Amino acid sequence: MNLIKYRTIVVDGLSIAYREVGHASKPTILLLHGYPSSSHQYRKVLNQLGDEFHLIAPDYPGFGNSDFPSPEEYEYTFDHIAHTMQSFIKLKGLDSFAIMMQDYGAPIGFRIATAIPEKVTAIITQNGNAYEEGIGEAWAGIKAFWKDRNERTEKALLPAFTLDGLKWQYTHGTRNAENINPDTWQLDYLRMSRPNAHQVNLDLWYDYQSNLELYPKWQKYLREHQPPVLVVWGKNDEYFPESGAEAFRKDVKKIDYNIYDTGHFALEENGDEIISKIRDFMNALD
Predict the structure, then answer these.
(1) Is 83 a catalytic residue?
(2) Residue from 40, 54, 83, 264 carrying the catalytic annotation
(3) Interval 63-97: pLDDT, tens
(4) Which helix (H) or strand (E) holds 88?
């Protein structure tokens, strides 16, 4: 059995933490986490697939165990985080890899894929959206914030950063909340309680509108490059409902499509089934 290594590497002057397991000679999967989480969300994947694949799960700046520079020191935008992750990829010498993306992992992953399409062997999307159809009802407050960022619209979003708000991210839409490990939202809450954490996450929510502007570019990438796509999607996600998963079928010819009766963090409740799908999908790649 391969032991997961908990490593750090200096990327553009920042210490980036990452989890790595498996031998580099095996097919690589780059695991890109979502909000408000970290590489911790992929612990089941790392534990169960490390013998068969080379898995790398980094924490973005400001997330997980990576450095958390202030907003004055680091511009918290998806463009900038994706640039940092591209530098990470170069430093790690990754020449060929699949990308698994969830939530924030999608805008970061698609920026990487469109920049270096020749290196990306496949896309695994777990509620990682790239279509207007996939923007759900939970975006109403954020859309008001996009329209006019002020103290009132910022304050309206702050409940999301509370312990109850973070718990909701994990338990909403699940079949049984008792299936979800509470360490997930407790860990996120500790990190969300750090100085600058609220501002950084508001900055990223504000910048999220830049992702919608790039959706046509990402869809064109899917049509032109036709990477094999594995969809493993929690259908009860109020941020990214099943319509976002369905939309991939418009542009992708080789798609393995799987929908689960669970919420935003589908790996928490359907980890074994999803991991089995990842194994079969990766082994079927040419």
Answers:
(1) no
(2) 264
(3) 999 999 999 999 999 999 999 999 999 999 999 99
(4) helix 78-92
